[in-house]
Amino acid sequence: MLEILPFILGPAATNAYLVADSTTGEAAVIDPAWDGAFLFEEAHQRGWRIGQLWCTHAHFDHIGGIGDLVRLLDPAPSLALHPADRPLWDAQGGAPLFGFTLPPAPAPDLDLEQGLALQLGSLRFRVRHTPGHTPGSCILYCAEARACFCGDLIFHHSVGRTDLPGGDWEQLAGSIRIQVYTLPAETRLLSGHGRETTVEEERCNNPFVRT
């Protein structure tokens, strides 16, 4: 069974997701946005072992907790990011442009790519490459849990911005139509900001990208 704990963290009110296979206690953090020590403690209190960090993209408000979190974990976790976002990662996700400095963090050691399977206990997540918000944006889909972690690709009745470096509106709209709207209608969409929604709700009512 997949357990999902969402936390709103950091200066941009980013959704970080602590997820675990409740049978094995194996855990991952999707977008360790901020407050790495807080995420560590939440897992520790539940007896969960964080072994993987999965980044949907490399904007600073989605990676700001990684440095502190990694320092508390032994053994060190695997850190996954699409290689197209490595230049953004190397620039601290743009943090200096907004007056922030992120704690030092190790380089990603797992390249996300279209179709890659990420295993968490008995649960499998499939990577879907969804450029548009950033060149390396990805979403993570767990069919068993009927859940998709969308980063900043799509929100409840909204979509990710494309006016930052590397953003592309046509790519973003295409990614939503091809990679999100083709998922089963009941799939939960857990985004990087705001409330969760479903594929059916966005296919029918998202004013920015129509089917």
Name the helix and strand elements from N-terminus to C-terminus, one letter apiece. Answer: EEEHEHHEHEEEEEEEHEEH
Outline type:
globular
- What structural class is derived from the secondary structure elements? alpha/beta
Count of β-strands: 14
Provide a count of the helices.
6
Mean pLDDT comes to: 98
Radius of gyration: 16 Å
Biggest β-sheet, characterized? 6 strands, mixed
Straight-line N-to-C gap = 32 Å
- How helix-rich are the residues, as a percent range? 10-25%
In order across it, which strands form the biggest sheet?
1-2-3-4-5-6
Strand content: 25-35%
| Contiguous uncertain segments of 5+ residues | none
What would your notes on this structure say?
By secondary structure, the protein is α/β, with parallel strands linked by helices. β5 (78-81), α4 (86-90) and β6 (110-111) form a beta-alpha-beta unit. The strands form three sheets. It has a six-stranded mixed β-sheet with strand order 1-2-3-4-5-6, covered by helices on one side. 21% of the residues lie in helices and 30% in strands. The chain has six helices and 14 strands.
